Amino acid sequence: MEPYLEILFTVLQIIVGGIGVYQIMLGFVGYYRKKETKKHPAQKSFAILIAAHNEEAVVGALLENLKKLDYPQELYDTFVICDNCTDRTAEIVMAHQVRAMQRFDPVKRGKGHAIEWMLEQLWQEKRSYDAVVILDADNLVSPNFLSEMNEKLVDGKQVIQGYLETKNPYDSWVSLSYALMYWYMNRAWQLSRYQLRLPNNLGGTGMCITTQLLKEIGWGANSLTEDIEFTARCVERNIYPTWAHDAIVYDEKPIDLASSMRQRLRWMQGHFYCARQYFFRLVKLAMKNRNFAQLDASLYLFQPFRLLLFVVYSLMLYFQVATSAFDDWGIREVLPDWFWVGMGVFFFLQTPIVLLIEKKPLKAILGYIPYQFFLLTWLPLAVYAFFTSNNTQWSHTRHTRAIRIEELSK
Fold first, then answer.
1. How far apart are CA 302 and CA 285, in angstroms?
2. Is residue 404 scored above 80 in pLDDT?
3. pTM of the entire structure?
4. Cα radius of gyration (the chain)
5. Are the beta carbons of 17 and 173 closer than 8 angstroms?
6. What dotted CATH number matches 46-276+397-409?
7. Any idea where the domains of the chain sit in the sequence?
8. Could you tell me the CA-to-CA distances from 143 to 14, 134, 254, 405 in Å, in that order?
9. Count of Cβ atoms closer than 10 Å to residue 340 Cβ
10. Which residues, in sequence order, are CB contacts of 81 under 8 Å at separation 6+?
11. pLDDT of 184-239, one tens digit each?
12. pLDDT-derived band of residue 121, with 50, 70 and 90 as boundaries?
């Protein structure tokens, strides 16, 4: 084989092997959770911003939920951003005696623009708040949500992400696949980074940001994945989002594959866009500052390419272990056969291990079988998103499951 091809395969083995080992080691850190004591009384004030576009079916349940939080009601106010709504969303919000902030802009559509507009309105309010919480209209939150955020804020944290739970995991194999994905990410990705004091990643909802920071740097996140963009902007400034494992936000997930594909395509398009904007900037900063935290954050921006890495890993496993292709081509085997086999076993077992640690029921564990197909559907989405990542048109995910927080408690 030509020398440059041998160099390419050698570099690929090192990159894929190194990132694979890093991800596996991170997962181990999240298997054990350090105990934390709660020590701060309620003292921080919150403006809860709810992003809503035609959410008449679900917004009422969230507003009822927020009135029952285990936190002094005089310390938080709720605002619903009725963004280009053509249904009864605003009417329902006002019936719950909550502020309905109606916005109509046919050009600047989407959640990022809606939040930026709402913050401009919020700064004009007579009352000031210590922090802003951002939720989606289809969400529910645990009663202790603001108490947990208060705990982090008093400790000096500026950007906090709550635990992303699925509101309807057992509605279909698709919603269960989402749940499996988030259960894994919460434990083996978010909790791991929190315990290692690395930057966590914002998840689009269940986010808490100090008012001081928002006024200082602005929102400035208007891509299809505004959470990833704002995370990158923070890490650039050495501000590391943190994790509140006990502050749970329940999010409704699609139940059919077509809706899921549309939603995940939007995520991937936004992710590729943010990767182009911030990946090399963060890597350059990390090298300049010798800052491992910034380098780790850049790897998350590299996530769309995880599928490519998985394809390369599969090729390595096939060429080196299953066949004699590397020997026939004269390619040097940088890593032994057992390494590639072992890495595959670890990757496959990580999610089931998390399910056992989280004490999920048998039907959740059985969902790991169709979950494999769900993972495969990311590949065509990633390919299409790569070539359409300049698309900024927001696609709305319809929500219909008006579940009450009391039902989830049961």
1. 16
2. no
3. 0.90
4. 22
5. no
6. 3.90.550.10
7. 46-276+397-409
8. 47, 16, 25, 9
9. 24
10. 49, 50, 51, 52, 101, 103, 114, 115, 117, 118
11. 999 999 999 999 999 999 998 999 999 999 999 999 877 778 888 899 999 999 99
12. very high
Tokens linked to 319:
């060429």
User: What's the pLDDT score for residue 304?
Assistant: 55
- Report which of 16, 128, 144, 136 is spatially closest to residue 75, judged by C-alpha positions: 128
pLDDT(256) > 90: yes
Say what percent of the chain tops pLDDT 70. Answer: 94
Q: What is the mean pLDDT of residues 122-133?
A: 96
The first and second tokens of residue 142, run together, are: 């645990």
